[in-house]
Design a protein that fits this description.
Number of domains: 6
Helix content: 25-40%
CATH class of the largest domain: Alpha Beta
CATH superfamily of the largest domain: Bira Bifunctional Protein, Domain 2
Number of strands: 36
Largest sheet: 9 strands, mixed
Shape: globular
């Protein structure tokens, strides 16, 4: 069977068992603060397991693309080294939400593997939870009894808590699990050593392929287990491992999941796969990593320097580095793999083929940038080893942290020169950074404390800014040693952050006492609205009036509705290829990222502004449609965003049917006239193929217009109110430029006038013409002019010039080219040494270098010490 057939057989099988087949969620997580990426098939169903969303389908199956590169599940450094770890992988899963349990899950797993996929029963082993006395948990005899109906008892193995008790995290739903393992060794190997002894022993050919999780408990903050009101099944089968077993391969990378990309890399590099371990590893790394990066970008996560964006950048750079070091690629090529992947996943995950050009261009830009970084890192390394015999740990960490230079490449370069790297020092510096980062982001979240048993929740913020409500539950959160509280209300007018729009703030007012609690923010977590406060109400059991900050909401709505008008206007002016790639909407500004590959011209910006402002003046009424079937909305021509997970029913926001029609959960103006005025304040590049527009509306745009008028009025007054302000200002600028040229000319003449004085002071030290002196010049450029003038006139020159600019000392070292080569004098090394006297640093080239410092008193010492370098 091909991998495509294997995937489809799984979905067809569970569809025949009454499961609803659902699409994969985006690999980038948008509304869960505990996750950056989807790392398991159950992530998109988390709110169902927690009982925080209604269950529409009690049986569900899918293939979910997952990414495991951070946190608890971090396999990045193993990827490519072994044959079965991946960054991005597919997780085939079937779920039961309070419907069937262990009996059906076990029977169907066995049926699919042995009757549909025809896997050899004699190669299969299963594990069950052995129990844990410290937790008061017994052996999972229920799973054992069901398994022994299908498999010999000696193939049912006991597993400890680590392997056979699955937990979502430190808290949350959990339960015993039953793993299914497959022994891929040869008949001879299996005869010599029993597979039982190799299960969960990290043997590369005895691998886990499926995990059946039976969720029975909820882990509380204090570590205790609470029985769930309903029992659930959550299974996950590694697609790549399954394909390997069915296709009889010894490596995941030998299956048709990876051979298309590996074959492309081998042909492009001219290196045959399977001949050399290092090049094989590099091909596997690139083949794996391009999948992760491509789908993350297609799902809306661009490479960047922080959070999820940094993870994606790190994965891509690891691929570039392996290709650079072991496959000889010194120019970009990884982006050329995107079309190969797009075709491979067409009809399965069409997000990639729909955005193929965009994803390619983003990856190309990142490749170009990192190859430049590698070149810079190599040069810094070469400069460093000129006068070091050990690569200091701090320097290795600086290359890694500041310049993105991989530590193993630093080690490789060091070995080539017969040097070693202080890895203990590097690890210490890295650990300090990790500890600092962990401390900055550490959050201690308590258990929910139930106040009212009301399980319902109603958001009324589309229709009103006030509502009568009760506190359903609360919990305490400690971050950066600061206590906060999070409340869940029965009814809330507060919009929870989402879709680029910030969460509402406002007040919670007790009806009984009048006490006011300030709501600082509102966020969504697993489907529920969480309201942030700095303290709890004195009487949690009372009734409250929840009241949104109306001014902030109004200004935010102006900006959010303006983004819809902006999106439509951009498509008109720039083309239909324009798609939203991110947004931020708050009370002060709107930020809108779009897919577009050229800087917008001033005329294009003006056209967009004119279209948006025309629509504002038309005062187009908002047309809001709630609970529209998703497919019906798409058929009506609505704009949907890549990387968003939409439900079966959606909300449609329209400002004129033929102009702007989008799926959106945010809050909006009742009519466009409320926006007032729209003005773009900046347009810039964010990443390859992504432009960022920032704009203002409403009260903020009125304030900015007023500020600009006041500024122009003030400038006119300073210029004695000329009739033609622009011409008068131009004349002043021209006059200023002319004066600057005169000053520069005067400084140059002064510098050159000193040339003869310096030549007269030169002394002969052996065959070197030496001079070390202080000069009085106004800036570094003047000193440079003087230094090069003397260098051009005097052979075998070693010149050191000290000066002071605005109270700060400066040193310049000039060495004749021939002298630098013959005597090994290096201006860069010399100036760094002399800079110690002025408490500074610097560098440059072997024949010209400069340094600055903060101790002018040390200039005299440095000048006097310069002659020592000739001894």
């Amino acid at each position: 069977m091909t991998s495509r057939e294997i995937r489809q057989a799984f979905l067809d099988f569970f569809k025949s068992k009454g499961h609803q087949i659902v699409p994969s969620a985006p690999v980038v997580v948008k509304n869960d603060p505990t996750l950056m990426f989807t790392n398991a098939g159950m992530n998109q169903f988390k709110d169902l397991f927690l009982g925080e969303a209604p269950i529409k389908f009690p049986r569900v199956a899918d293939t979910q693309r997952c990414l495991r590169v951070s946190g608890k599940h971090n396999d990045l450094e193993e990827v490519g080294i072994d044959t079965y770890h991946h960054t991005l992988f597919e997780m085939l899963g079937n779920w039961s939400f309070g419907d069937y349990f262990k009996k059906e899950a076990i029977a169907w797993a066995w049926e699919l593997l042995t009757e549909v996929y025809k896997l050899d029963k004699d190669r299969l082993y299963v594990t069950i939870f052995e129990g844990d006395a410290t937790e008061g948990l017994n052996r999972d005899m229920e799973a054992f009894d069901f398994w022994k109906q299908w498999i010999a008892e000696d193939r049912i193995l006991l597993g400890n808590k680590k392997d056979n008790f699955w937990e979502m995290g430190e808290t949350g739903p959990c339960g015993p699990c039953s793993e299914i393992h497959f022994d891929m060794r040869s008949k001879e190997e299996r005869a010599q050593v029993s597979g039982q002894s190799l299960v969960n022993a990290d043997h590369p050919q005895v691998i886990e392929i499926w995990n059946l999780v039976f969720m029975q408990f909820n882990r509380l903050k204090d570590g205790s287990l609470q029985t769930l009101p309903a029992k659930h099944v959550d299974t996950g089968m590694g697609f790549e491992r399954l394909v390997r077993c069915i296709q009889g391969k010894t490596s995941n990378y030998d299956t048709d999941v990876f051979t298309p990309t590996i074959d492309f890399i081998a042909a492009k590099s001219g290196i045959k796969y399977g001949l050399d371990e290092k090049s094989d590893i590099a091909m596997r790394v690139v083949s794996d990593h391009i999948r992760a990066v491509s789908f993350a970008i297609a799902d809306g996560q661009l490479p960047s320097n922080n959070k999820a964006g940094y993870v994606i950048r790190r994965i891509l750079r690891r691929a570039v580095r392996y290709a650079y070091t072991f496959l000889g690629f010194k120019t970009p090529f990884i982006h050329e793999l995107v079309p190969v992947l797009a075709v491979q996943f067409s009809g399965v995950f069409d997000e990639l083929i729909q955005q193929q050009d965009f994803v390619q261009k983003v990856i190309l830009e990142e490749e170009v940038s990192f190859l430049r970084t590698l070149s810079t890192g190599v040069q810094r390394f070469e400069n460093y080893v000129e006068d070091h015999t050990l690569i200091n740990g701090d320097f290795a960490f600086e290359l890694y942290d500041t310049y993105g230079f991989p530590i193993d490449l630093t080690e490789l370069l060091a070995r080539e020169k017969g040097l070693s790297v202080d890895m203990d020092g590097f690890k210490q510096a890295l650990q300090i950074q990790k500890d600092r980062s962990r401390a900055a982001t550490a959050i201690d979240t308590g258990d929910w404390v139930i106040v009212n048993d009301d399980e319902g929740f109603e958001f009324v913020g589309y229709d009103t800014l006030t509502a009568k409500t009760e506190v359903v539950k609360y919990r305490k959160v400690v971050a950066k040693n600061k206590e906060q509280y999070q409340l869940v209300l029965s009814v809330s007018p507060f919009y929870a952050e989402g879709g680029g729009q910030v969460g509402d703030s406002g007040e919670l007012i007790s009806e009984e006492t009048g006490e006011k609690i300030y709501i600082t923010d509102t966020k969504k977590e697993n489907g529920i609205f969480v309201h942030f406060t700095n303290k709890l109400p004195l009487d949690l059991n009372g009734t409250f009036i929840a009241e949104v900050d109306s001014t902030k909401r109004l200004d935010t709505e102006n900006n959010h509705s303006a983004t819809h008008l902006l999106h439509a206007a951009l498509k008109q002016v720039l083309g239909t290829h324009v798609n939203q790639k991110g947004s931020l909407v708050n009370a002060d500004i709107l930020r809108f990222d779009i897919s577009h590959f050229a800087k917008m011209s001033e005329d294009e910006i003006k056209q967009v502004e004119d279209i948006v402002n025309a629509k504002i003046r038309e005062n187009i009424p908002l047309k809001e449609e709630r609970n529209v079937p998703y497919q019906q909305a798409l058929d009506s021509g609505v704009t949907a965003l890549f990387g968003e997970k939409y439900g079966d029913f959606v909300r449609v926001i329209t400002f004129e049917d033929q102009f702007s029609k989008e799926l959106c959960g945010g809050t909006h103006v009742k009519a466009t006239g409320q926006i007032g005025f729209f003005k773009i304040v900046s347009e810039s590049a964010v990443a390859a193929g992504v432009r960022r527009i920032e704009a203002i509306t409403g009260t903020r745009s009125a304030a900015v217009i007023r500020e600009h008028f006041e500024l122009v009025h003030h400038l006119k007054e300073l210029m004695n109110n000329p009739k033609d302000f622009v011409s008068a200002l131009g004349k002043i600028i021209d006059e200023n430029g002319a004066l600057k040229k005169e000053i520069e000319k005067s400084i140059t003449e002064k510098s050159l006038a000193l040339k003869s004085d310096l030549e007269a002071k030169i002394e002969q030290v052996g065959d070197v013409n030496f001079l070390s002196t202080l000069v009085d010049l106004p800036n570094a450029e003047a000193v440079k002019t003087l230094a090069y003038a003397v260098k051009g006139a005097v052979n075998n020159l070693f010149l050191v010039i000290g000066a002071e600019f605005d109270g700060k000392p400066s040193l310049t070292v000039v060495i004749s080219d021939d002298l630098a080569k013959e005597k090994g004098l290096n201006a860069s090394n010399i100036v760094r040494d002399l800079a110690k006297d002025i408490q500074g640093g610097g560098g440059g080239q072997p024949f010209f270098a400069t340094a600055g410092g903060k101790n002018s008193a040390g200039l005299k010492t440095a000048i006097e010490r310069a002659k020592e370098f000739l001894s």
